[in-house]
Design a protein that fits this description.
Layout: H1 4-10, H2 18-29, E1 36-40, H3 46-54, E2 60-65, E3 76-79, E4 91-96, H4 102-112, E5 116-125, H5 140-147, E6 152-156, E7 166-170
Helix pairs in contact: 2-3
């Protein structure tokens, strides 16, 4: 696996830790030329830039976000609401880190999980309980808890359990 500390130093700024990288990087490294990684919720582009740095030549790296294009060279970026943009290509890995409301994360999953090829994964960011008042709108955990039982899944969390965490669904 790639040197996570080096990736962290080279990546765009953003809220994506080396702990997060330890989960997502192996999924991206497994992609073969012609396969697609899709990131829903790019923000400043840190995780998108990490995906690009570790992907094999020929893997397509796509991002969609309401924020402006973070200008990650070699990636395809769609600016707009993830609920409006329609993608028609099959993907192998989807990283959902966009609208953290219950309705938002549910809609992102419903819109995009059918695009995942057999053997692909959907990775959710921020599956831990966000109980602090300033994070009351973050309901990824609620949706994650509802759907994970229907799939083979893996959870990656670290202390303290009041922020972050990743959930991976095998499709």
């Amino acid at each position: 696996m790639a040197d996570l500390e080096a990736l962290d130093r080279k990546a765009n700024p953003g809220a994506f830790s080396t702990f997060d990288m330890a989960v997502l990087v192996p999924e991206v490294e497994r992609l073969e030329p012609g396969e697609i990684y899709l990131e829903v919720g790019v923000d400043k582009g840190k995780s998108l830039s990490v995906a690009k740095m570790v992907a094999k030549e020929g893997v397509e790296i796509w991002g969609v976000d309401l924020c402006k294009d973070p200008k990650v060279p070699g990636t395809r970026f769609e600016n707009g609401d993830s609920r409006i943009i329609k993608l028609e290509k099959k993907v192998k890995v989807i990283f959902i880190d966009g609208d953290h409301t219950y309705e938002g994360v549910k809609k992102d999953f419903e819109m995009y999980h059918n695009l995942v090829n057999e053997g692909g994964v959907v990775v959710f960011h921020d599956i831990c309980d966000h109980s602090a008042p300033q994070w009351a709108h973050v309901k990824v955990k609620q949706f994650w808890d509802e759907i994970k039982g229907g799939y083979k899944y893996h959870e990656f969390v670290h202390e303290p359990l009041d922020w972050g965490g990743l959930g991976v669904l095998d499709l």
